[in-house]
Amino acid sequence: MAAPRSIADRLFWPIVAGGVASLWFGRAALAVAGVVVLGIVLHRLGRGGRFRRRVRALARRHAGTLSLRRRQETFVDAYGNEILDGWLRERTYFAERTILPRLEAEGYGDLVEARWEEVLGIVEAASLAEVPDETALLPDDGLAYERFCAALLERAGWNARTTRAAGDQGADIVAERDGVRLVVQCKRYAKPVGNGAVQEVVAARGYWNADRAAVVSNAGFTPAARKLAGATDVLLLHHDELQGLRPRRAG
Question: Domain Restriction endonuclease type IV Mrr, which positions (predicted)?
Answer without folding.
Answer: 144-244
